[in-house]
Amino acid sequence: MQTLFIFGSEGVIGSHLAAQLSKNFIIHCFDLRLGHDLTNHEEVESIFSSTRCDAVLNLFALNEHVGRSSLALSYDDFQLSDITKYMQVNIVALFDVCRTFIKYNKSGVVLNYSSIYGLGVPDNRLYDGGSMKHIGYSVSKSAVIPLTQYFAKNSDPSFRFNCIAPGGVFAEQPETFVAKYSDRTPLRRMCHVDDLVGPTIFLLSPQSSYVNGAVLPVDGGFSIR
């Protein structure tokens, strides 16, 4: 059985996928909640130098609004330092994980998670009465896509890099938000974590052996223009 490292294993998506993928892989879980700081290069180096793995699933990301920007009702409310945090976690740390995986392994598969807001900018009308979706999130998650494709195009052919862009995942959001979001989605519902299991297994498995640099939206058609 192949060994899979899951980075960001303790979130809503990560915890579910870790449980489901344990049927297909030997799982090693890494998460800030477990004490792993992936913005620390020495820690990333230590993880990969100590244990070989066949595949990497990168789910970690700074998703939530941070600092005063959680109350952002205008562009003036976005803290520049918050945007830096998004880029540090979602892009700089992700780049480090990808390149360090290559450094310590002769072959393998990497699956990065972007977002529908990496495919298109948020419609802040969905968040009426709350706050603007953070610009740092959308910009950083959009950058996950060319980062993934950069590795796909420039790495040794023994490595494959692909990307999933999930839609909004249902996690007990207010009914009014769920209704508005579902109304804008052709399948008329939010994404459930179970919807992500099959696509994730496919892109990590030999069944996708000729798939490289792909971006797969799993969003019920939300990103269709």
CATH class: Alpha Beta
Measure the end-to-end span. 41 Å
Uncertain residue segments: none
Beta-strand fraction estimate? 5-15%
Number of spatially distinct domains: 1
Mean pLDDT equals 92
Outline, from the CA principal axes? globular
Within the largest sheet, what's the order of strands? 2-1-3-4-5-6
Task: Please identify which CATH superfamily we are dealing with.
Answer: NAD(P)-binding Rossmann-like Domain
Description of the molecule:
With 225 residues, the chain is of the alpha/beta class. The protein has a single domain, classed as NAD(P)-binding Rossmann-like Domain (Rossmann fold, 3-Layer(aba) Sandwich), CATH 3.40.50.720. The protein is 38% helix and 14% strand. A 6-stranded parallel beta sheet has the order 2-1-3-4-5-6, with helices on both faces. Strand 1, helix 1 and strand 2 form a beta-alpha-beta unit. Helix 2 runs parallel beside helix 3 and helix 3 packs parallel to helix 5. The longest helix has 25 residues. The protein is globular and about 50 Å long. The termini are far apart.
